[in-house]
Automatic annotation (TrEMBL):
Residues annotated as the enzyme's active site: C366
Entries under InterPro entries matching the protein: NA-bd_OB-fold, SAM-dependent_MTases_sf, TRAM_dom, U5_MeTrfase_fam
Superkingdom assignment: Bacteria
PANTHER family: RNA M5U METHYLTRANSFERASE, TRNA (URACIL(54)-C(5))-METHYLTRANSFERASE
Entry annotated with the keyword S-adenosyl-L-methionine: yes
Official protein name in the record: Class I SAM-dependent RNA methyltransferase
Molecular function per GO: rRNA (uridine-C5-)-methyltransferase activity
Pfam families in the record: PCMT (PF01135), TRAM (PF01938), tRNA_U5-meth_tr (PF05958)
Statement: the UniProt record of this protein carries the keyword Methyltransferase: yes
Length: 407
């Protein structure tokens, strides 16, 4: 145990303090607090740990963690549960700006300021009433040695049985994964995924098999209906495939990307990392028959879903391919949309993309550090950021989403 004062917020959900010349990254603290930290990892220059007691100066933004098993020294997945809802977006706004400065450098900060952009992470208004809990339509679990649904203790492979997951929407509770009827159905080490789609009944995946209820096999596909303004987009999605987890995220992401992309009828769009076609479908409708959308995705099963979701739009195609520097250099589009995984595009692909003839590039980022690196590379290559919108799609965790448009 060490006692320290927390002086800053770091990217990754921890606050920062110092002990004997080493930086300490402590989860479950708040800036300004004097705290006792249980150390969970020790390296030559830094320590990591969890705040187990506030000794002095408790933050006015602290609340009791509503899900204690995910609190200090518990399972991962709710590392901001001790932070009051409205302050979580302040926290994330601070992380976004400090990461842009740390990784993008003063030049990028000045560039954004000159473009009139003030990066800010907004919460979903609808989340306030529930403090950001009960928002997720996908929940991943494992099965412990006794056959119970469990999660991993943060940073370890040690399983901890859980009796509920308050991050999940109420429809997932209806599956009663933690209740009696599934008793004896799970084997140690199996992976469970509870899925509550917007357009069909909830299912539980046990490894690769889907079930409506114990011993009732289900189709491995679900339907997602996404309403954006007056438009309804409908999708077939593999139950174990990628889909935005917050119940509002799919609609919000479409709205943000369509604003940022400003596509016109007749445009030729290239979409990288397209998943099951969440963005491809609205892009195809917007460009119309006179235009085209070419989407690339690395997972073949997601491309199969995308093709099913694009059947009515012959001018939109989905191809299985790893996004590579070589390929990005060859793809020509008026508008390019990229929604990469957490690792981002990488400096090389970002630079090559910036050098293509695209009139507009939209980058969707779920990690501010890789985003800052990629945007910096594109600005260094001569692009200009014209908008940046950010929403808290992952309340009670440190994650958030940013959509950036460059010309
Ligand atoms: C953040 S998801 C976005 C998917 C889609 N835009 C959506 O919102 O549903 C990123 C996608 O990139 C795919 N992916 C990851 N690495 C890839 C790579 N190197 N090449 C192509 N696709 C990749 C993943 O399979 C995943 O579908």
């Amino acid at each position: 145990m060490i006692d320290i004062e927390l002086t800053d917020i770091a990217h990754g959900g921890a606050c920062v303090g110092h002990s004997d010349g080493r930086a300490v990254f402590a989860r479950f603290g708040l800036p300004g607090e004097r705290v006792r930290v249980a150390v969970t990892e020790e390296r030559s220059k830094l320590l990591r740990g969890d705040v187990v007691e506030v000794l002095d100066n408790p933050s006015p933004h602290r609340i009791d963690h509503p899900w204690p098993v995910a609190g200090p020294l518990g399972v991962g997945g709710a590392e901001l549960g001790h932070v009051e809802f409205d302050y979580q977006s302040e926290w994330k706004t601070y992380v976004l700006n400090s990461t842009l400065r740390r990784i993008g450098g003063q030049r990028l900060v000045d560039h954004l300021a000159e473009s009139g952009i003030q990066p800010h992470v907004f919460p979903f208004d609808g989340d306030r009433a529930n403090g950001g809990w009960h928002t997720r339509t996908r929940v991943e679990l494992t099965v412990d040695a006794d056959g119970f649904p469990a999660m991993y203790r943060n940073g370890t492979r040690e399983t901890v049985a859980v009796g509920h997951v308050p991050l999940a929407v109420a429809e997932i509770d209806d599956l009663e994964v933690f209740g009696g009827s599934w008793a004896g159905q799970f084997r140690p080490g199996q992976r469970l995924r509870a899925v509550a789609p917007s357009g069909s009944d909830p299912v539980l995946m046990i490894d690769k098999n889907a079930f409506w209820a114990p011993l009732m096999p289900a189709e491995p596909y679900v339907r997602e209906d996404v309403v954006v303004g007056h438009n309804l987009y409908s999708y077939r999605v593999r139950a174990n495939g990628f889909w935005q987890v917050h119940r509002e995220a799919a609609a919000q992401l479409i709205a943000m990307v369509m604003r940022a992309a400003a596509v016109q009828p007749g445009d030729n769009v290239v979409e990288l990392y397209s998943g099951a076609g969440l963005l491809t479908q609205p892009l195809a409708i917007e460009v119309g028959q006179g235009g085209s959308v070419q989407s690339l995705e690395g997972v073949r099963q997601a491309v199969e879903d995308a093709r099913a979701n694009l059947r009515e739009f012959s001018w939109a195609t989905s191809r299985t391919s790893a996004v590579s520097a070589q390929l990005v250099g060859k793809e020509a589009g008026d508008v390019v949309i990229a929604d990469p995984p957490r690792a981002g595009l990488g400096q090389e692909i970002a630079t090559i993309l910036a050098g293509t003839g695209a009139n507009r590039i939209v980058l969707v980022s779920c990690d501010p550090a890789s985003m800052a690196r990629d945007i910096r590379a594109m600005v260094d290559a001569g692009r200009k950021v014209v908008s940046m919108e950010s929403v808290d799609m992952f309340p009670n965790t440190h994650h958030f989403e940013v959509v950036t448009a460059l010309v």
